[in-house]
Amino acid sequence: KGLKYYDLAKNIYHENGMMVKYADLCSNIGLALSYSGEDEKAISIFREGMEFYVKNEVEPIEYSSLLLNMGASFYYLDLMDSAFYYLNDVKEIYRANNDSSGIGKCLLNEGSFNFSIEKYRLASENFKESLTYAVPLNDLEDIQIANRELMLCYGFMGELDSMNHYFEEYYYSNADYFEDITDKTILEHEVKYETEKKEQALILARHENDKIELENELKQNTIYILIGVILIISLIVIIFYILNQQKQKVDRMRMDAKNSEIESLIKAQELKTYVAQMEGQDRERRRIADDLHDR
C-alpha cells in the first residue's frame, strides 16, 4: 500500500518537472522495496534516482544515503563485489566532506559485509576503525554495535581474551546507551531490532526457498531426462522390432516364392514324365497293332 502512494507521488513529481524531488522519492521507494525483499527492483529504482541526481548536478553527499542503500541491496543479493564498490564510493564521499559519523557507519557496514563472508580479521579492523569515529562523537549506538561485533569476531577467531575485553566494553556501552535514551527510544530500538531480525529471517527463508526450488528443479529435470532416455530407447526397440518383423516377412515371402517355384518345376517335370509315358505306351500299342496286321 505504501509503494502505491510512493508511485503516485513519483508520477506527480515527474509530471511537474520536480526531478530532484523525484530522485529523493526513488531513494525512499528503493528502500521500501529492499525492506520487502525485492532487492533487484530496489537496485533498479536506486539507479534511476542516481541518474537524475547526476543529471541535475546534485552534490554526491546529498545522495550518499541512496548509494549506501544500493550497496546494502547488493549485499542482500550476495553480490559482494558490487556491495563493496558502492560502500567504498560512499565512504570516499563522506571523507571528502569530513563527515565522521557517515565514515563510521560505512566502516560498520563494511565490517558486517566482511563478517558475513567469514573474513573476521578484516571485519574486526573495520569495527575498530569505526570506534575511532564513534567515540569522539559519543555515538553510543555505533559504539555499542562495534563492540558487539568485535566480541563476535574475536569469538569466531578463538581469541578469548579479546572477546572478553569487547564483551565488557559492549556491556558498559550497552548500559550507557540505555541510560542515555528515553523509554520511547528504547521502544523504537526494540522495534528496529525485531524488524531487522524479521528481515534476516525473511532473507534466510528466501535463500532456503531458492535452494529448495533449485533442488526441485534439478529433480524435475532429472526425471524429464530419464523419461526422454526411456522414450528414445523404447522408440529404438520398436523400430528394430518393426524392421525385424518386416525382414522376417520378406524372408517368408521369398521362401514361399522359392517353394512355389520348386513345386511348379516338380509339377512340370511330373507332367513331362506322364506325357512321355503316354507317348511311349501309344507307340507300343501302334507297334503291336502293326505286328498283328502284318500276320
List the topology elements:
Layout: H1 2-15, H2 19-35, H3 39-55, H4 64-76, H5 80-96, H6 100-116, H7 120-137, H8 140-157, H9 160-180, H10 183-294
Helix pairs in contact: 1-2, 2-3, 2-4, 3-4, 4-5, 5-6, 6-7, 6-8, 7-8, 8-9
Structural account:
By secondary structure, the chain is mainly alpha-helical. The chain has ten helices and no strands. The chain has helices spanning 2-15, 19-35, 39-55, 64-76, 80-96, 100-116, 120-137, 140-157, 160-180, 183-294.
* Helix percentage range: over 70%
Task: Report the count of strand segments.
Answer: 0
* Proportion of residues in extended strands: under 5%
How big is the Rg? 47 Å
Please mark out the parts with pLDDT under 50 across 5 or more consecutive residues, or reply none: none
Mean pLDDT figure: 81
Helix and strand composition category: mainly alpha
Oligomer: single chain
Q: Output the helix-strand order.
A: HHHHHHHHHH
Choose one word for the global shape: rod-shaped
Give a summary of the structure in a few sentences.
This protein is mainly α. Helix content is 89%, strand content 0%.
Summarize this structure as a short list of keywords or feature phrases.
295 residues, mainly alpha, 10 helices
